[in-house]
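Progress against Task 2.4 (sequence-to-structure conversion) is shown through the following example record, which the project officer requested during the mid-term review.
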Amino acid sequence: MKITLEFLRFICLFIVLFAVLGIVIPIGLLFFGVDPYKYGWIAIIGVFVSVFAIYKKKGWGKDVNLPILGISALSMILLSAVVPDMVPEQFHASTYIYTYGLPFPYFSLYSESGANFMLPNLLSFRLTNWDMNIIGFFMNIFLFYVLFNWLIKKFPITKYKEISQ
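C-alpha cells generated for the chain above:
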C-alpha cells in the first residue's frame, strides 16, 4: 500500500510540475527567440530533476527499492523496444501510427512507411511526430516494480556455501 501511495504522489507531483514548466519553458524559449517545438523536451528533463530534488529534500521514497525500480524501468523500456507493433493504425494517406508499450501503450511514433519495431522507426528519418502517454509509462513501471518485488519476495536468492569435508 505504501508503494502505491508513493507512486501516486510521484505521478501527481510530476503532472503538476509538468503543467507549470510546460507553460514557463515555452514562454522562456519564445522570449529568447528559440523554437519551443524543437526544444520542448527540456521541460520533461526539468520536471524529472525537480521531482527528484523535492523527493531528496522532503525525504520521501524511503520504502521504494531503487535497484528494483531501475530494473523494472529498464526492462519495461527494453521490452517495448523488442515487442513489435503488429497492427499499426493508418493516420493519413501515407502516415502510420506505431504504438509501443506493454501492457499499457505509452509511446507512439508517426511514420511514413515505417517498420513494426521501435528501434528502426526511431533511427529512420521518416518520423513525422511522436507522442508519449506519461500515465501509461508510469503505470508500466509500477506494474513491473510490483511484479519484480513479488518475485524477489517469493523466490529469495540465497547463497549456497560449499560443503568441504
